[in-house]
Design goal:
- 34% of the residues lie in helices and 17% in strands.
- It contains 10 helices and 9 strands.
- The strands form 3 sheets. Strands 1-2-3-5-4 form a 5-stranded antiparallel sheet. A two-stranded antiparallel sheet has the order 6-9.
- The structure holds ligand AK6.
- The ligand COc1ccc(C(=O)Nc2ccccc2)cc1NC(=O)CCSCc1cnc2[nH]ccc2c1 binds next to strand 1, strand 3, helix 2 and strand 5.
- The ligand COc1ccc(C(=O)Nc2ccccc2)cc1NC(=O)CCSCc1cnc2[nH]ccc2c1 binds at residues 20-21, 23-25, 28, 44, 46, 48, 58, 61-62, 65, 69, 78, 80, 92, 94, 96-97, 100-101, 149, 159-162.
């Protein structure tokens, strides 16, 4: 049974603000609740057309996602405050992340690189969010910079759950977007579990420090595929020994050998920059 919204919202409850971007199936606007006199608060309103959702056969996935996300509460996971619909559209009331999209910030950095201190804080926040999701048997499956947002205090927020499923997952619908973050078991279409997020965490850490993901082959997707399947990983010389150790412990072919999140949070590289991470 889909969650009965806490109260029935409708478009007239909001003051429309500027567009925040185009999502997968709709547009997102910055809006303020409590029209008129009282302050209210700012949220991101995602507007999607029902016939488009039906056309792409994703209405069941959306319903499942709403079920999952209405119960998630974590500082590094973008909140879904509620949802409502009118005759032709579905609206998601999402948390507004005050410092915007992480990849836009990355594109402004010289060679898109963060220093190790910033990267370690982000990875600690991601590990925290992922251990929360995994404790609820939710696999994200799509951890990558494009899906990360920044809160007003500069904290990371996992922002988009287009592919989260209850473990163990076995992707039924076809893939879209980059292969770069997918682990061998997914590119080979095999059974996969929560360890796919551990692999992606290692790939994310690599990209934060090198500016590009480890298996990227701009020219050829099939080459990326081969490099992932063979774990053709080369750690750049500018990586500290400790972060080299962390990345190599996460980006492992065998899912069972990947460093568990509890160990990531206690890893020397994380502890050096974020002592109260664990
Ligand atoms: C929890 O979050 C989400 C949950 C569900 C869905 C979704 O669309 N699910 C879906 C749709 C159809 C079929 C199946 C599933 C999307 C999001 N999240 C976003 O879309 C992030 C960017 S919109 C928010 C936002 C906030 N804060 C910002 N600050 C600057 C820009 C910005 C942008």
């Amino acid at each position: 049974r889909a969650h009965a919204p806490t109260r029935s919202w409708s478009l007239k409850d909001f003051e429309m603000g500027r567009p925040l971007g185009k999502g997968k199936f709709g547009r997102v606007y910055m809006v303020r609740t409590a029209v008129g006199q009282s302050k209210g608060y700012i949220i991101a309103l995602k507007c999607m057309y029902k016939n488009e959702l039906v056309h792409h056969k994703v209405e069941k996935q959306l319903r499942r996602e709403i079920e999952i996300q209405m119960n998630l509460r974590h500082p590094n996971i973008l909140r879904l405050h509620g949802y409502f619909h009118d005759e032709g559209r579905v609206f998601l009331m999402l948390e507004f992340a005050g410092k915007g999209e992480l990849y836009k910030l990355m594109n402004k950095l010289p060679d898109r690189r963060f220093n190790e201190k910033t990267a370690a804080q982000y990875i600690a926040q991601m590990a925290d969010a992922l251990s929360y999701l995994h404790s609820k048997h939710v696999i994200h499956r799509d951890i990558k910079p494009e899906n990360l947002l920044l809160g007003i205090r500069g904290e990371l927020k996992i922002g988009d759950f287009g592919w989260s499923v209850h473990a163990p997952g076995n992707r039924r619908t076809t893939m879209c977007g980059t292969l770069d973050y997918l682990p061998p078991e997914m590119v080979e279409g095999r059974q996969h579990g929560e360890a796919v997020d551990l692999w992606a965490l290692g790939v994310l850490c690599y990209e934060f420090l090198d500016g590009v993901p480890p298996f990227e082959e701009v020219e050829s997707q099939s080459m990326t595929y081969k490099r992932i399947a063979s774990v053709d990983l080369h750690i750049p010389s500018h990586f500290s020994d400790e972060v080299a150790n962390l990345v190599s412990s996460l980006v492992r072919k065998n899912p069972e050998e990947r460093l568990p999140l509890s160990r990531v949070l206690r890893h020397p590289w994380i502890q050096r920059y974020d002592p109260d991470a664990a």
